[in-house]
Design goal:
The protein is α+β, with helices and mostly antiparallel strands. It has one domain: Cysteine proteinases (Cathepsin B, Chain A). It contains 13 helices and 18 strands. The longest helix has 16 residues. It is globular, with a radius of gyration of 23 Å. It starts with a strand and ends with a strand.
């Protein structure tokens, strides 16, 4: 489906995920700790170094021909938007703090006295260290630098991770912890670090990243967030509940669906990843045979905008003219136009018809997705295509306001940009990746180009490159 990276890609993956969760040892949860002081007077030492040269099929639904009334597609979509998408759920209190606050599972087993002074002091000193390219790993280096400058995630790994029991089973988390310690170690006098161990374990855990073949930062981020959540999930076996089987419940009752989903979320999701990166998405579909509206809720950690389709949508809606679309240069895209495209209503017809269990056949249907609640860390992928890169400039602000695009207004609305991955090359699977990051300590922007790290002379230098992935953090 357009515009979204699901945490679960299908029912089979969903089942596999929960099986993996059950195998994990019980662990303690963490408390958010925002009591760190920033030493604003400290000026980071920027070191330059030459780059290291070493480098079971599903049955198809039976199609039954039924007579359907003729209808005007434009009028149907307009009525659907006015009557359905403006319909607010009466009981908003069902959305708990999992989507509004950073209070992931206040477990009394956490002992704050375990945090030694040395670890806390390291939080006040910005260390600027690059990552050596060990063979077409620029995609990995850019990703690691952006995650490293995700403040709450790095605080968790530096100050809490080593006190969590059962870490031997947390394979990817252990390797990531080693990288973070080296990137933020005050005693590290090197200008760059070689993540050889991380790459070796990554290749074993996911064959997609084997060898020295070029890969995509988007795929790596999606994989790491999934694995970190599974390894760091604090759900105990006795509290685990089975996922919702939407085929066995009434999907026409929006409030009931929301209540069931939130019960599942509260019992099955309890990790630093779900707390920071997971938001809530709602999908609505209306069968054109019986006119019944069905609702569904999902978690998401990635929002994806296909830029070429966004421009086509803007042309259809009158925001682009003929000359814009037929010039030698693709029109610029505004990030808010991407959110408008994401909320667009599609008429699913022809080969895209949807199965209706009431009509018991494939029917034309109206289908749309909505951002119901935004996460604390919002990751946006500006999809430029798998083949030839769709080159266009994307206009995105440093402060993002989603008040017009998030249904649940009490959730996160205002976001601040802190990292950008830019891509240079003919396709997403080739070329070069660099990262612009706002240092989590001194709040200055740096360009991370593998082992080379340079201070940005202008705070808007990150807009010069071809932006590919944006990282926004909520402004409280």
């Amino acid at each position: 489906m357009k515009g979204i990276w699901y945490y679960f890609c299908c029912r089979r993956c969903r089942k596999k995920k929960y099986i993996n969760d059950r195998d994990l040892n019980d662990s303690v949860s963490e408390k958010s700790d925002d009591s760190y002081e920033i030493n604003k007077e400290y000026k980071p030492k920027i070191i330059y170094e030459t780059q290291n040269k070493n480098p079971k099929k599903k049955k198809k639904a039976k199609t039954i021909k039924i007579e359907m009334k003729s209808y005007d597609e434009k009028n149907i979509i307009n009525n659907y938007q006015n009557n359905i998408y403006n319909n607010n759920i009466s009981n908003k209190n069902i959305i708990n703090n999992n989507f509004t606050n950073n209070n992931i599972a206040n477990n009394k087993n956490i002992n704050n006295n375990n945090y030694n002074e040395f670890e806390i002091k390291k939080e006040n000193i910005p260390i600027i260290i690059g990552l050596n390219n060990i063979g077409a790993t620029c995609y990995m280096n850019a990703t690691l630098q952006c995650l490293s400058n995700t403040d709450k995630l790095t605080k968790y790994f530096l100050n809490k991770y080593k006190f969590i029991p059962g870490n031997k089973n947390k394979i990817m988390s252990n390797e990531y912890y080693k990288v973070i310690v080296n990137l933020w170690d005050i005693n590290n006098n090197n200008s760059s670090y070689s993540p050889n161990d991380f790459k070796e374990v990554l290749s074993k855990e996911n064959p997609l990243f084997e060898g020295i073949n070029a890969n995509d930062s988007k795929d790596l981020i999606n994989f790491l967030l999934e694995r970190f959540h599974i390894e760091l999930n604090n759900v105990k076996k006795k509290d685990y509940i089975n996922p919702i089987n939407y085929n066995q419940i009434d999907q026409t009752n929006e409030q009931n669906i929301l209540n069931l989903f939130m019960k599942e979320f509260e019992n099955n999701y309890n990790s630093i990843i779900s707390n920071l990166f997971y938001g809530l998405m709602e999908t609505k579909s209306q069968c054109q045979g019986c006119n019944i509206i069905k609702y569904n809720f999902q978690v998401y950690s990635f929002v994806e905008f296909p830029l070429e389709k966004v421009n086509e949508y803007c042309f259809k809606t009158g925001k682009r003219n003929f000359y814009d679309m037929n010039s030698n240069k693709n029109p610029d895209v505004n990030i808010y136009e991407c959110f408008e495209y994401y909320h667009n209503i599609d008429l699913m017809t022809g080969d895209n018809r949807m199965y209706c269990n009431i009509c018991n056949c494939l029917c034309d249907a109206l289908y749309g997705t909505l951002l119901y609640a935004a996460p604390n860390i919002l990751i946006i992928n500006l999809n430029r295509g798998k083949g030839a890169v769709y080159e266009c400039k994307v206009i995105f602000p440093e402060v993002l306001n989603l008040s017009n695009y998030v249904i649940f207004k009490e959730s996160n609305i205002i976001f601040e940009l802190y990292a950008v991955i830019c891509h240079i090359g003919p396709s997403s699977m080739s070329g070069h990746f660099v990262a612009y990051c706002k240092n989590r300590i001194d709040k200055k922007w740096y360009l991370y180009n593998d082992s080379f790290v340079t201070l940005c002379q202008n705070s808007y230098d990150y807009r010069k490159g071809m932006a590919y992935i944006l990282f926004y953090q909520v402004v409280k």
